[in-house]
Each structure stands twice: as C-alpha cells, then as structure tokens.
TrEMBL record:
Gene3D superfamilies: MFS general substrate transporter like domains (1.20.1250.20). Residues 411-420 have a biased composition (Polar residues). Residues 398-420 are annotated as: Disordered. It is found in: Cell membrane. It comes from the Bacteria. This is MFS transporter. Residues 398-407 have a biased composition (Low complexity). It is a multi-pass membrane protein. The keyword Disulfide bond does not apply. GO terms for molecular function: transmembrane transporter activity. It comes from Streptomyces triticiradicis. Its main location: membrane. The chain crosses the membrane at residues 20-41, 47-67, 79-98, 104-123, 152-172, 178-195, 224-244, 256-277, 289-308, 314-334, 369-391. GO terms for cellular component: plasma membrane. The lineage of its organism: Bacteria, Bacillati, Actinomycetota, Actinomycetes, Kitasatosporales.
C-alpha cells in the first residue's frame, strides 16, 4: 500500500481497547437478539416478520438526524450511557414477558420499535467514539480493528443465535443481550474520551439538526464521501446477502460451496483491515477508497460473467470493500468539524440505510426478471462508475492525511493522563 501512514507509532490507547471489547460484545448480543426476533416473528408468518423488520428499520432511518444532533448537544458518551441503560431495562423486560406470555406479536413489534429508536441515537454517538478516544493519527488503525472485530462478530452471531434459540429461546437470548448492555455500561463509566470537546451548545435543536445536514452537503470532501458511500451501499452491500444466494440457486451450488464464498469475501476484507491495523492506512484516503471501489467492481464483474471463478472474485470483492471502508471512515470523521461528529455519523448512516433499503428491492426485482448474474453485472457497472467518479473528484483525490496541528482542545486533552 503506497504512501501509508508510517508516522503512526505505538499501540492504541487502553481506553480504546476496553471500549471496543465492550462494543463488540454488545454487537454480538444485538446480532443474536435480532436473529431470535426474526425467528420468533417467522413463526407468525411472513407478514409479521416483515412488520418486525420494518419496526426496527423505519424509526432508525427517521430519527437518525435527531439522534446525531442529540449526541453533539449532550455528548456522545452520555447518549451511549443512556441508550445502554434503556436497552438493559428493555431486554430484561422482554425476557420476563416472553417467559410468561411467549413471543406475542405485539411484544415483537414493541421490541423492534425500541431497538430501532435506540439505534437512531446510539449509532451516531458510537460511530464518533473512535476519534474521541484515539485522535486523528491512530484513527485508521482503530477503525480497521473495529471493522475486523465486527466481521468476526458476524461470523459468530449466526451459529450462536441458532444454538441459543434452539436451547434457551427468546427469553434466554434477551438475557444474554441484557448482560452485554450491562458490560458496556460498566465500560462507559470507566472510559472517558481524551480527544474530545465539550458538547455543542447555542442554537435551537432544529437549527442544529439542519446545520448538521448542511455541513455534510456544503463541505466538498464530506459531500463527495457521502455520495460515494451511498453508491457503495446500494450496489455492493446487497450482493453477498441478497444476490449471491440467488445466484447459488441458479448455478446449483451447494450450501457448503456458497458458505465458502461468504468466507472468501470475508477473508479478503479481513486481510485488508489487518494490513491497515499493522501498517497504517494510505496518506490519500479518498484516492485509496476510490481504488477499493474499482477493485470491488472487478470482483463483481468476474463473479457475474465467470461463475467458475467465484472464489477469487469473492476475495476481490472483500478486498475492495475493506480498502474502501478502512479509508472512507477515517476520512469522514477527520473531515467533519469536531462539534459535528455525531451529526456527521448520523448522516453517513442515513445515506447507507436509505440507499441499501432502496436497492435491495430494485436488485431483487432485477434478479427476478433478468437473472441474478445480470443483477451482479449491473452492480459491477455501477460500482465502476462510482469508483471512477471518486477518483475524478478533486476533493477526494487531493485530500491527504499529512500531520496537522491539533485543535486547542485536543492539545489540552492530549496532555491529560489516560483515563484507564
């Protein structure tokens, strides 16, 4: 990886490792609970299962900007503590009610709505925490570690969720998730962000929310990064969970072979994130992210046109995805004003969510009408256009991560003793 950040030295702060361990444990608990909710909803039929998913996703999308504004006004750490406390109480209540009344439809819908609402407030705050804990210089390595950990959580969540549902049901799964929320609550009481500024105060709430959106739209780097992220979310993220299983059925691949392809994609992604963790990221994150989009486009093109080369194409897709994610995340966080970190993360999550929701339906219909291989090739073409646009964007192409002076608040914080 040319032009990598050789200036990044030393281990990441202990505070970050502690927070990340708690966050990944909570992520595992959440993923297992989502599996259990979906399984319980499926027993009531497809319509109820769809309603439960909607109960989770709709409030999350509608309230993300509100959640990001709350995070910047009151502090990300405070929002996360409040969110974990609410979810701890909610999952305990879910365990009690499901134990006595079973997985009733109303209980699943209420739980789904609670999860969606809390995600809208929690995700923007959590997304800004790596920068608040490690600062700019170590951010790419920190985010790569988080991305790799999240991928491992995804590996474990499916089998663990199935085993828990089969043995302890929704009640036991809810108790496990509650335990992870308790762990994160303890972690957050100990960990305090070093590279942080006081919560933003001043204007009205609506004005602050609009200002967060305006910052993302007006800033040339953020605007370009958000547009490219929307393209990747719409044309890359649906491929593995949606189009690959459809293509496997059309090509008569076994479940084991299809699972190998999932693993090959993850292998490519983890290989890149591990490299970034060890050696640092590229000095031109926008340029590297755009190159990652093109690498993924090549992988998609091979997958759609030469199914026999599915394994190497899956590795390429994972590598491109890893290159993009490990560079666009630090670019967005470091380009945002420190007073707008949660709002910027909310906007980034909103762009991803809306694009993914829309293109899941579009690509599903394309696969039904023209075949999944055609849908994959369409994604390859769209990703090639997206990657080319990223490389042609002056804002993304020329932005560097050269050392820069810390903000005054960061200079003061950097001299403080580590809080853990």
């Amino acid at each position: 990886m040319t032009g990598r950040q050789d200036r990044v030295k030393g281990p990441l702060p202990r505070a970050y490792h502690l927070w990340l361990a708690g966050a990944l444990a909570s992520g595992l608990g959440d993923a297992v609970l989502y599996f259990a909710l979906g399984w319980a909803a499926a027993t009531h039929g497809g319509a109820v299962a769809g309603l439960v998913l909607t109960a989770i996703n709709l409030p999350r999308v509608l309230l993300l900007i509100v959640g990001g504004t709350v995070g910047d006004r009151f502090g990300a750490r405070r929002v996360m503590i409040a969110g974990d406390a609410v979810m701890l109480a909610g999952t305990l209540l879910l365990a009690v009610v499901s134990h006595h009344a079973g997985p009733a439809v109303w209980l699943l819908l209420v739980t789904g709505a609670l999860v969606g609402v809390m995600d809208a407030f929690y995700l923007p705050a959590s997304g800004s925490m790596p920068l608040r804990l490690v600062g700019k210089e170590a951010l790419p390595r920190a985010l790569a570690m988080r991305q790799g950990g999240a991928q491992l959580v995804t590996f474990v969540a499916g089998p663990l969720g199935g085993a828990l549902v089969a043995t302890v049901g929704l009640t036991g799964t809810a108790l496990l998730d509650a335990a992870t929320f308790a762990v994160v609550l303890i972690v957050l009481t100990v960990v305090r962000p070093v590279f942080d500024t006081p919560p933003a105060k001043g204007g009205g709430f609506v004005r602050d929310a609009l200002d967060g959106v305006g910052t993302g739209v007006k800033d040339p780097v953020l605007r370009a990064a958000l547009l490219v992220t929307g393209g990747v979310a719409g044309f890359l993220l649906p491929v593995v969970p949606l189009l690959l299983p459809l293509m496997a059925r059309e090509e008569h691949w076994s479940a084991g072979w299809t699972g190998l392809l999932f693993g090959a994609q993850s292998l490519g992604l983890l290989g890149v994130t591990f490299t970034v963790m060890v050696r640092g990221a590229g000095n031109r994150p926008g340029l590297t992210a755009g190159a990652g989009v093109l690498v993924a486009a090549v992988g998609l093109g091979v997958l759609g046109s030469v199914p026999a080369a599915a394994v190497p194409s899956a590795v390429l897709i994972g590598m491109g995805s890893g290159l993009f994610a490990s560079h666009i995340g630090p670019l967005v966080l470091t380009s945002a004003p420190h007073s707008h970190l949660s709002r910027t993360q909310a906007l980034l999550t909103l762009v991803q969510s809306v694009s993914l929701l829309a293109m899941n339906n579009v690509l599903g219909n394309v696969a039904r009408l023209a075949g999944p291989a055609t849908a994959v090739l369409a994604c390859a073409a769209a990703m090639a256009v997206t990657g080319t646009a990223a490389l042609r964007s002056r804002a993304l192409r020329t932005t560097t991560t050269a050392p820069s002076a810390l903000r005054p608040s960061e200079e003061q914080s950097a001299t403080a003793a580590e809080p853990v």
